[in-house]
Amino acid sequence: MRKNIVAGNWKMNKNLQEGIALAKELNEALTADKPNCDVVICTPFIHLASVTPIVDSALIGVGAENCADKVSGAYTGEVSAEMVASTGAQYVILGHSERRSYYGETVEILEEKVKLALANNLTPIFCIGEVLEERQAEKQNEVVAAQLASVFTLSAEDFSKIVLAYEPVWAIGTGLTATPEQAQDIHAYIRSLIAEKYGQEIADNCSILYGGSCKPSNAKELFAKPDVDGGLIGGAALKVADFKGIIDAFK
Ligand code: PEP
User: Which end of the chain is more exposed for a tag (fewer CB within 10 A), N or C?
Assistant: First the structure.
């Protein structure tokens, strides 16, 4: 059956020393009080090689927030999936709305990134979600269906290795959260699309995380919904007490 996962997205926060301190503090907290779900921290590239050896891999997975859409070569400033994997990281967030909107990442670019991540044994946490105007026009289902095109060209075997994160853009960093019912409705819709494409078993085994202003006070209610399998957490992942409060929603 599918896994429950709480994944943190540090975004462009924390210098190296601060990031190491945060990872150590989280590791200590989860060693003392074991989580009832998988826990992942996705950090800036420069933190990965330092953070992977200091966390207990049985308790905390480590991931990047992006990777290149090319294998290697003259792409100044880019970081490949192979480089990410060589740090010991096991995950990579792909398709985050900030990457789509600020860096022009298209369905096609993201398809390449997902394939390269999988070829390097990284688990993509693939993000989809609509902006406010699309939600107001009740177009959220159409939007996520179109975004899934990046991963619906995968073989069934490869699709089974990815994690999805539904993140309504209007709820990211805004303090607005989708209601548990809104989250459940669209998660169930996403799962129905997976079932249509890959069959019910693969759909039932796919973890679909919710992201968007998730915090200790709303996590339990959101995660209680049958098709919500955990969260992708931005702001609240930067403080151990908040992140652990969300992890503890599974207790
Ligand atoms: C995110 O950016 O993935 C996110 C969910 O951010 P926040 O929790 O801060 O809304």
Answer: N
Confidence at residue 70, expressed as pLDDT on a 0 to 100 scale: 98
Q: For residue 93, how many other CB atoms are within 10 A of its CB?
A: 26
Ligand 1 contact, 172 CB (< 6 A): yes
- Please give the number of the atom of ligand 1 that sits closest to the Cα of 174: 10
Phi, psi torsion values for 25, nearest 5 degrees: -65, -40
Active site residue 96: yes
Beta strands in 118-241 (DSSP E): 123-128, 163-166, 208-211, 230-233
Tell me how far the alpha carbon of residue 87 lies from the centroid of ligand 1, in angstroms.
24
Q: Torsions phi, psi of 232, nearest 5?
A: -105, 120
Which of 96, 105, 130, 187 is the catalytic position? 96
- Can you list the positions of beta strands (E) in 95-247? 123-128, 163-166, 208-211, 230-233
Residue 1 has pLDDT above 90, yes or no: no
Regarding the beta carbon of 63 and ligand 1, being less than 6 Å apart is answered: no
